[in-house]
Amino acid sequence: MRVSLKDVAELAGVSVKTVSNVVNKYQHVTPATREKVQRAIDDLGYRPNLTARHLRKGRTGIIALALPELGNPYFAELAGAVIDAAGEHDYTVLLDHTQGSRERELLVTQGFRARVIDGLILNPLELEAEDLAARTDTAPLVLIGERRYDLPYDHIAIDNIAAARTAVSHLLDRGRRRIAFLGARGDRASQPAHLRLLGWRTELAARGVPADETLVAPVEGWDRADGAAAMAALLDAGHRPDAVFAYNDLIAIGAMRVMSERGLRVPEDVAVVGFDDLTEGRYGAVTLTTVAPDKQAIARLAVESIVGRLEEPKTPGGADGSGAGGNVRHGDAGGAGDGVGHREGGAENGEGAVVPRQLQPGFTLVERESTLGRSPTH
To answer: What burial class does residue 111 get, using C-beta atoms within 10 Å of its C-beta: 0-12 exposed, 13-18 middle, 19+ buried?
Structure first.
């Protein structure tokens, strides 16, 4: 027989409303009461009917996450973090694979699943501002990734310039001066590469080291083979660096493979820093120093932005008062001490709409063997 809220309330000696408040994670319940209700829930094996709960609110309980490349370990790890964060709010995640295609990105933003999802988290590569400005779907939209848009949607991305400067500074501190950048791109989907290259140039200039543009190696894609090709091209052209800052870990791993084939030692001959802190980088023959974006914070902020916007009362001017496709700023998802930077946003405009936020989760530099060398115990 299915256990009901009433059964839990009777065992705990509280009202059904109190049990509902505990199940729905409302804050205004005393710790003692919450503990008593939770004990009754555990004893009876009560499981909430999440579908019914969402339907009562006119929702499906599903958030869509649209990513450009699920085969890339970074996006796979980020997807797992989003799924975990959504689960904390009793939401299920529907994954979309856009393959970095403008047509597929347009499809997911234009409401083709409007009756299936409550909100969309999107990492766009090809969409332009006018594409998103023309969006008519009223489901909340949150943007992740480094492409910037002056649009009424919350955007969550780390500070790529600061992160790149941290990586280059680490290499300079290790005495390296001929620092290559692997990962330059010329297409419109490459804004993160532009920002990281700018960080490379900025830190070199700040430290009084001339930026040797012959050490900037372009890539066709973001995978291991692209890093291998870029490193081989540098060496074949006689532009040997004493350090490499790679756009991402996969490019760094490909470059390290070529160095090994050419008889170059890491880090003795060439120190290497990657970006993303992929699990793969921790288990190579030489472990990889890398910039580690806070993927958990990116996921948490994205989900909390969607959920918070869904909880906002509906007001005139748009689906939820924004007048621009369903995005209203809610209370800070992070809070003091969470390593999240809150940039611009928060003030209402003259029509009552609220400016969206630019949120910057933190990052750390994880130092490993590719710059530090092996410890004496190895």
So the answer is: middle
Q: Judging by beta carbons within 10 Å of its beta carbon (0-12, 13-18, 19+), is residue 123 exposed, middle or buried? A: buried
pLDDT tens digit sequence for 308-345:
888 865 543 333 433 333 333 233 333 333 455 654 44
- Would residue 147 be called left, alpha or beta, if left means φ above 0 and alpha means ψ between -120 and 50 degrees? beta
Q: How much is the pTM? A: 0.77
The residues with which 246 forms a beta bridge, in sequence order, are 182
In this structure, what token pair is assigned to residue 121?
A: 């988290």
Compute the distance between CA of residue 153 and CA of residue 356 in angstroms, rounded to an integer: 6
Answer left, alpha or beta for residue 102, where phi above 0 means left and psi between -120 and 50 means alpha.
alpha
Can you say whether the dihedral through the CA atoms of 16, 22, 24, 29 is positive or negative? positive
Pairing of strands 363-366, 289-293: antiparallel
- Beta-ladder partners of 142: 121, 154
The b-or-e profile of 70-101 (16+ CB within 10 A means b, else e) is eebbbbebbbebbbebbeeeebbbeebebebe
Would you tell me how many other CB atoms lie within 10 Å of the CB of residue 50? 12
